[in-house]
What does this fold into?
Amino acid sequence: MFFASDNTSGVHPRILDALVRANDGYPPSYGDDAIMARVRDRLRETFEAPEAAVYLVATGTAANSLILGTLAQPYETIFCTPMSHINEDEANAPEFYTGGAKLTLTGTEDAKMSAATLRKAIEAEGTRGVHGPKRGPVSLTNVTERGTVYDLDELGRIGTVAKEFGLPLHLDGARFGNAVEALGCTAAEMSWKAGVDAVSFGGTKSGCMGVEAVVFFDPARAEEFEFRRKRGGHLFSKHRYLSAQMAAYLEDDLWRSLAAQANAACQRLAQALKQMPDVRFSHDTPANIIFASWPRGLHEKLKAAGAHYHLYSGSETGPEDEMQEARLVTSWSTSEEDVDRFLEVMRH
It folds into this structure.
């Protein structure tokens, strides 16, 4: 009953096998390996973007921060939501890699910015000349950190506002596959067709050991990113091990299959929880993350039975009927047995 994070799941066997195969021989270093050439072609095909510049790094923080470092000047501000990963969970890495660009937080509803809240935030900045920050990139996350998903219309409206002000749009896609599966769309529809200029295409949370793709739809950004990746210490010498993971992840759309498995496990869990009178959902649950509250006494019984998940509210001690909010995350390896055992403990 491990629902703490999809980061805690193992590596898919096909990806492990690809790493073993990549271990033979002496291919070129720093991304000049033949596997990376295949990855580049496959990602361009996946995104329907034959001219896109494609790179690999090992972490989502590196992917997001290096993209933003390429898109933003040090004297600019990046527009994002308060609960975005770049604001809450990256230890000021975007500010570091941009050389000092600040973050401006937009209003939210269901953990998402809207075209209206983005416009309001943009119009409030860039108005003081040299005494304030210049308007810079817009950054959003799909799936959001609260488990909600921007639909294609919402993305398109945000992209339109960004373009109206001449601002680049970055998509943090740590759970890109989960969002695509939840929407039933294509990678292109959830990226450049909605106005996205650069995306981090996540693999680590969905069956890879540690690899994220960076995709710039305007190849003119490529050279600057290459220098920033090297200067930032994220150009792997034994790059073939990143390439091998991503190649296996893309083959036969494994990335979509694994995301679908995680989403299906989440829906199985969510539908049953919604039938329980003491459970209150904080947000919609279209992908693989649940935020919901139930009484402290029930949390204690679940923890005693071996369930692993994070609590987001409530004190360490208190009455048994105190409501505490939990975050549950399913992964590609979450089984029906895991879900059903969790539900059985809750019911009894």
Summary: The longest strand covers residues 134-141. The mean pLDDT is 96. The first helix runs from residue 13 to 22. The radius of gyration is 21 Å.
